[in-house]
Amino acid sequence: MDIRPNDILIMKKKHPCGSLRMLVLRSGMDFKLRCEGCGHEFMVPRSKIEKNVKSVERSDDKEL
Hints:
By secondary structure, this protein is mainly β. It has one domain. About 10% of the residues lie in helices and about 40% in strands. The chain is built from 1 helix and 5 strands, in the order E-E-E-E-H-E. The protein has one helix spanning about 45-50, and strands at about 10, 20-25, 30-35, 40-45, 55. A hairpin with a 5-residue loop joins strand 3 (about 30-35) and strand 4. The mean pLDDT is about 90.
């Protein structure tokens, strides 16, 4: 699964604050995510994220 920094992940399960949207701050073997609802930042292993992600929203920033 191709997940890059600044992507928004729509998760299958809600964060305790009720939000499903997570911003990717760092990707690799672990992901650093920020909850879009409450701003909480946390690290999660890649295997856990790949199982629990429903969709990925990507903003294609193309420079000229």
